[in-house]
Task: inverse folding
């Protein structure tokens, strides 16, 4: 397993997400879908829920002014070192006024939450009428491995399950697609072989906690990483236009269409 830890006095020069094919595939897929609904703008208000060390905030900044919130203190120290001003708070009780943001992002966050519906209801509350929510998360419970457990996941979702959850929270679903479609046969096949052989997945480190910021991802051979990264670029072009039929992750875009009373104070 690859682990990166940041101390409060050290500014990170490079983090694993910068060069790992999995993170690049997720980012490019998300942005290619989101670009079809949210145009770049300087004055739009964007919230990154579960922002961690701010690894996605510079990508989200293309859509407007970004603020972040997370319930782990140590990653937020790194986030502040990168020039952001995040808040320490749980996703179930966001410290913002109603209708505060034009775009709310939960990127591989909701699967960590005990009460995922409450989290989405909070996102609905702080989302402005006409605003959007963008979500990524793991797909298919049958793909559950020890890596899910170690990383603090509570569940994985199907497309239908995530759609119902968003609708129950009040959102109007615009698109939900599976992601990591092109590598899905390989991932599913390796998991099946592991289960048939009785071989357990090796997991070396615990999920990040309040005392350590850690990124856990299987190390990848540089050549393989380059090949998989290339497939991620192809997938980003596909997912921009069509919903992919299967994959190990999901990407969803939903909108708050219901009119709500404006509370006046729109930013923290």
Result:
């Amino acid at each position: 397993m690859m682990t990166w830890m940041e101390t409060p006095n050290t500014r990170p020069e490079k983090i694993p997400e910068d060069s790992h094919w999995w993170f690049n595939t997720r980012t490019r897929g998300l942005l290619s879908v989101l670009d079809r609904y949210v145009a770049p703008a300087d004055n739009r208000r964007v919230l990154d829920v579960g922002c961690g060390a701010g690894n996605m905030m510079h990508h989200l900044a293309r859509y407007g002014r970004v603020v972040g919130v997370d319930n782990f203190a140590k990653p937020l120290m790194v986030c502040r070192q990168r020039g952001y001003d995040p808040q320490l708070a749980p996703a179930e009780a966001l410290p913002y006024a109603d209708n505060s943001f034009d775009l709310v992002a939960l990127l591989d966050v909701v699967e960590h939450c005990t009460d995922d519906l409450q989290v989405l209801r909070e996102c609905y509350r702080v989302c402005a009428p006409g605003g959007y929510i963008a979500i990524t998360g793991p797909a298919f419970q049958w793909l559950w491995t020890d890596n899910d457990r170690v990383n603090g996941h509570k569940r994985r979702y199907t497309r239908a399950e995530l759609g119902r959850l968003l609708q129950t929270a009040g959102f109007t679903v615009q698109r939900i697609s599976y992601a990591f479609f092109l590598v899905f046969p390989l991932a599913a096949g390796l998991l099946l072989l592991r289960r048939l052989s009785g071989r357990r997945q090796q997991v070396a480190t615990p999920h990040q906690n309040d005392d350590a910021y850690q990124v856990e991802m299987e190390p990848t051979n540089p050549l393989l990483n380059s090949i998989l990264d290339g497939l991620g670029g192809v997938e980003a072009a596909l997912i921009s236009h069509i919903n992919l039929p299967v994959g190990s992750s999901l990407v969803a875009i939903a909108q708050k269409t219901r009119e709500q009373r404006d509370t006046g104070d729109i930013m923290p």
Notes: Helices lie at 21-34, 57-60, 73-81, 116-126, 146-150, 159-169, 184-197, 222-239.
